[in-house]
Amino acid sequence: MCYTLCMDTSQIANRYKLVEWALDERLRRLVTAAEAKVLGRGGITLVASTTGVSRRAIHAGLKELESRHLEERPTGSRIRRPGAGRKNVTETDITLQADLEFLLEPVTRGDPESPLRWTCKSLLTLAAELGNKGHRVSHTHVGKLLVKLGYSLQGTKKTLEGTSNPDRNAQFEHINAQVTDRLTKVEPVISVDTKKKELIGRFKNNGKTWHPKGEPTEVKVHDFIEQAGRANPYGVYDIGADEGWVSVGTDHDTAAFAVQTIRRWWHVVGSQAYPNAKELLVTADGGGSNGGRVRLWKLELQGFADEIGIPVRVCHYPPGTSKWNKIEHRLFSFITMNWRGEPLISHEVMLNLIANTKTKTGLSVKAELDNREYPKGIKVPDSEFAAINIVRNDFHGDWNYSICPRDNL
Length: 409
Hints:
Helix content: 40-55%
Order of helices and strands: HHHHHHEEHHHEEEEHEHEHHEHEE
Radius of gyration: 32 Å
Low-confidence stretches: none
CATH topology of the largest domain: Nucleotidyltransferase, domain 5
Shape: elongated
């Protein structure tokens, strides 16, 4: 009896080793189940201990043999029946992805000109925080979700932008809280900035696009400014509506041009989208034409606030953190990708490329040409600046303030 059992065990092991390399999940359980069925009583235990295949798998194989599932073998590369196998965690936990994005939103950082983004929180930390919210998910699956959401792990040197400020992180949290509060109340929230100035003409534009083989678009060797000059795209991005507005200026990039773009967006789009608005929240960089220290910026906003009759609240990003502005990675990056490899031979071509920028999330963009003159070097006298109805926030009033309509108008 012992000799026969040893022979059976040896033969089973030898047969299994000969074909093991060719067995997928389904065939593995069917082959071992066939061996166990032939052996009869005690066969499952013997085959499991000999081959290393679990008793559970052998039992499943016996059920398939009994129900003749061999005649219903899936076609192609499918091993399991349709609907079989473990469900994806995002299917069984429908709020997991939304909660993960919520954890990342206040601290998302990265180069907006790239479609990839990265986060400064570790996978273990994110998994732990998701666990506190009632989600059962491993840190490895969090990594897979981040890749699916468009995040990429990058070197720490990418996070060291500009000079450090002791209240830098606090300002980010403040901006995030202000934006979230206004969006919850369906109030208008816009992100504004100037895109990189572009030369108009048959000049090289970085990137590649599809052309017949051996027929690249010919452009000039040297980037000397031509009669058409440069174009100054200034953008307004409606965070809640995922809509953009870009004014392409032909003169100087000044605070007057910046506020005029906001004014055009409000009269054409904003006032219709937010007819009951009580306040307009603007997030902007700390420098440039819309900088926190630019007197003309505040004076022009005062005229705009008087015109629309509601306060204009401004939150500036700290110095050296312009890449964090929403408009950079939600509008400008996609415009850059849309016109990659295309020479901007005229303002009309530039406007069409901007206006036809779209994303899978539903981004739409309107664009117009602004031929007005915006002279540089305008000084705002102390008397005019003192007349601005500005209310500064208790926290960093130089970064956070409101321009309120003046009662005497």
